[in-house]
Amino acid sequence: MSATTPIQHGHSRTLFWIAVAVSVLMFAPMAWVLVLSFTDNEALSRGTEAAFTGPYTLKNYTDIAGNSGVFRWFVNSLIVGAGQTAGVLVLSSLAGYAFGRLEWPGRKVIFVIVLFGLAVPEQAVIIPRHQIFSTLDLHNTYIGLMLPGMSLPFGVFLMTQFFRAIPPEIDEAALLDNATRWRIFWKVLLPLTLPAQATLGIFTFLFAWNDYWWPLISATDKDMYTLTIGIASSQVNFAQTEGLGFLAAQAVFAALPVLIVYIIFQKHVVTAVSGGAVK
């Protein structure tokens, strides 16, 4: 058994302190917003140093409970996030199965075309997308907010790679039992991809929940604002808000669903990243 040398010990200590410094830098803005959310607005109006001295209160959070606009934006974000996530999981799973397990003419060419979508920035297609949705009268609707995010090339690529990693003997055994392709997909293969779907679902929900660009363009009716647009509009009209503490409380309120989703599905994410989903 070899002993740890002083040089190795020094490198480990350096890496440890680097990790601590990076963690502090990442956590500091979140901690600052959290402290502001509990600080009295009247004290904050005189200076943000009140965040260190108080007084502290829960009024900012109780004000959210009495603000129907914030809850309306919250529900809109929840509907858009859940609907977009469900759409991505369904379409990516079906496409991944078709690309990863089936043989059909033009499969490789179409798969390359799908991957080209990874290289096209959203800003490059925003004008034709806006015109199409205007023609179809889909602006200020839930479908209009969800539909662009359902076409996710990364989701198709992830599910394709995951389906390809499943041993082909599973399909052969199911076919010998006279199972149809749909039954093999639904009953046999799809359950094996749950870790990948959990990972894809979390990233899709995070993207939909934090999306600002498309809701800013598509949602012009205040009742159709998502949380990102609603909170941003409050910051623009800062003089009409109830103060900095109230804005910080809204930000904390908006972050809670993301934290809850990650806590619930973190086991599946770790499994997918470690590659232990398919044995």
From TrEMBL:
The topology of this chain with respect to the membrane is: Multi-pass membrane protein
Q: Gene3D superfamilies recorded for this chain?
A: MetI-like
Q: Which UniProt keywords apply?
A: Cell membrane, Membrane, Transmembrane, Transmembrane helix, Transport
The main place the protein resides is: membrane
GO cellular component terms? plasma membrane
Q: Where is the ABC transmembrane type-1 domain?
A: 74-265
State the CDD domains in the record. TM_PBP2
Any one Pfam family here would be BPD_transp_1
The answer to whether the entry has keyword Membrane is: yes
Q: Where in the cell is it found?
A: Cell membrane
In terms of InterPro entries, this protein maps to: MetI-like (IPR000515), MetI-like_sf (IPR035906)
Cross-referenced PROSITE patterns:
ABC_TM1 (PS50928)
One GO BP annotation of this record: transmembrane transport
Does the entry feature the keyword S-adenosyl-L-methionine, yes or no? no
So which domain of life are we looking at?
A: Bacteria
Q: Which residues cross the membrane?
A: 15-35, 73-97, 109-130, 142-163, 184-209, 244-265
- Family the UniProt entry places it in: Belongs to the binding-protein-dependent transport system permease family.
Question: What is the designated name of this protein?
Answer: L-arabinose transport system permease protein AraQ
Q: What is the species listed in this Swiss-Prot or TrEMBL entry?
A: Palleronia abyssalis
